[in-house]
Amino acid sequence: MANDSSDFARSMAIATSGLRAQAGRMRVISENIANADSTASTSGGDPYRRKVPTFSSALDRTLDAQVVTLGKIKPDQSNFRVKYEPSSPAADATGNVKYPNVNSVVEMTDMRDAQRSYEANVNIISATRRMIQRTLDILKS
Amino acid sequence: MSINDLPVLSALRTKMQWHQERQRVLSENVSNSDTPNFRPRELVEPKFDKTGAPAGSMGPLAMAVTSTSHMTPSGAASSFDQNRNAGFETRPAGNAVNLEEEMMKSANNQMDYAAVTSLYSKSLHLLKTAIGKG
């Protein structure tokens, strides 16, 4: 499917790589949101650390095009939120509990961004499909 | 002379190939809209001579006047980018893809392609009429 005969198929494959990357990003975001309140299982331990997806552009040799791939998922090194809750099982000796460094507002904006990019890729696929349809219409006339 | 050698048909076919390739470039831009340091790309429009054959290698890039103190080369285009309404921005990550603009280009590309395919079928229809089958 990679060669000259089907440039449209290449366009669709590139857009699909975008869809896949954005879906992976969505998975990481949902992981962050779901774990927004997870504390450590041991007292004084570190809770869930926010994960940040990275994107990289790679040359796909079979397609001969720049496709996008989801790169390493890196931990966010910012500080944990600390709350004074002496009764919590996760509290350390001073009664403080560490909460994940997840900010729901940041996650929500990230989610909207991922959704927007996903829709753009879907639009490219439907536009390409309409172009293929036009090509086939030549045969009908 | 085969049907494919007709100037009209071959010009239309070149144009269709150009739209096909442009769709690939646009789809690359959109799918890399979150990749750091990615800069969007665009395809130079094909130019045709009077016989309908593509002139030059898909039209060379014109010389650009990037400063008011530059002399204008003879026969140069008035500006580098004719589309003055297009936005340009580079995000802190170094990504310069503008999704709205890419969507507009994709829609334009699709409409132009539809026009070219219609012209192609019309030309074929004309040929059929000429041989008395239309």
Task: Give structural notes.
The complex is a heterodimer of chains A (141) and B (134). Chain A is α+β, with helices and mostly antiparallel strands and 141 residues long. Helices cover 46% and strands 21% of the residues of chain A. Chain A is built from two helices and four strands; from the N terminus they run H-E-E-E-E-H. Chain A has helices at 7-34, 104-140, and strands at residues 51-60, 65-75, 81-84, 96-99. Chain A has a two-stranded antiparallel ribbon with strand order 1-2. Chain A has a two-stranded antiparallel ribbon with strand order 3-4. In chain A, a hairpin with a 4-residue loop joins strand 1 (51-60) and strand 2. With 134 residues, chain B is mostly helical. Chain B is built from two helices and no strands. Chain B has helices at residues 7-31, 99-130. The longest helix of chain B is centred in the C-terminal third of the chain and has 32 residues, at 99-130. Residues 76-80 of chain B have low confidence and may be disordered. Chain A binds chain B through residues 7-8, 10-12, 14-15, 17-18, 21-22, 25, 54-57, 65-68, 113, 116-117, 120-121, 123-124, 127-128, 130-131, 134-135, 137-138, 141, and chain B through 16-17, 19-21, 23-24, 26-28, 30-36, 38, 99, 102-103, 106-107, 109-110, 113-114, 117, 120-121, 124-125.
